[in-house]
Amino acid sequence: MRWTTQAVDADDGALPGLERSGLVRRVQTPEFDGITFHEVLCKSALNKTPEASRLPFDYTVNTFRGCSHACRYCFARPTHEYLDLDAGHDFDTQLVVKTNVAAVLRRELARKSWKREHVALGTNTDPYQRAEGRYRLMPGVIGALAESGTPFSILTKGTLLRRDLPLIALASRQVDVRVSVSLAIGDHELQQQIEPGTPSPKARLDLIRAIADAGMSCHVMVAPVIPFLTDSKQHLEGLFADLAAAGASGVTVIPMHLRGSTRGWFLSWMSAEHPALLPRYRRLYGRGAYVSPEYTRWLDARVDPLVERYGLAGRQPAHRGAETPASPKSEPVGPPTLF
Ligand code: SF4
To answer: Which residues does a 6 A CB cutoff place in the pocket of ligand 1?
Structure first.
């Protein structure tokens, strides 16, 4: 693995090379069939986002690299290639665990130079993926942020967040805390195909309800919307009705983009499962990563009245995750093409 030569923009610069760190343990356990944990000692935890990224936060913390939620559209996939792992199956099953992340973060937050800028959790991997049940990294991270007076946000698909709800609610009395759940596929069967490692839509609706019941607002990332599979009026209306009933405070809706090796990983699945859609995808995306401007306008026109009807126009939190582009935009892909 090319751990020692990873580029700074690979993820967060917080991952030490195995050779440099001095410790690495590879763990496989029967409870996590097919998954290998690479336990590392990180040298830094806070990652400064690049100026050019135009992200609504300056710092991130990622407790893991790789994500067993295994979303086929995940834009963080190419970051695994910096480890000489592949962006497909390896991203889903070869998980890097920063076992000392809370202690390192606490040290960094104690520096006089720390200005208590907003820290986003869940931007490149899901902090509440199943592995968090084994490693329990988040309680230490949340405690360190709250005690240092640092505002933070969490974005997840993981129902494991419920374990930490009392802690998060407590932290929200000390600092500004924003919690978002990602749920863009209401159909259980389709969710199992596209996001095979994630909790079901119903389980995530229950999570949204639990967050609201704990007295916190819960924004929902309806992202990504997958063209021709989850953009029907019927699907979106059903999803929005469920989100409103669960107590979501607002939604952000973003169509799927396909960058780098994520594109091939997603389209190989699509060619196996929905080959008839491939020509439409070619027209919609062309050789670019983004849907055509016409599609974006069409989707906005479909979504806006639903957002209004279901009272989901609450403010967007300072957060974007691995389902959403850093700078959502559309690229022209030739002549106007919608379908
Ligand atoms: S999109 Fe989020 S939850 Fe899905 S695999 Fe990527 S990091 Fe994990």
So the answer is: 67, 69-71, 74, 76, 125-126, 157, 321-323
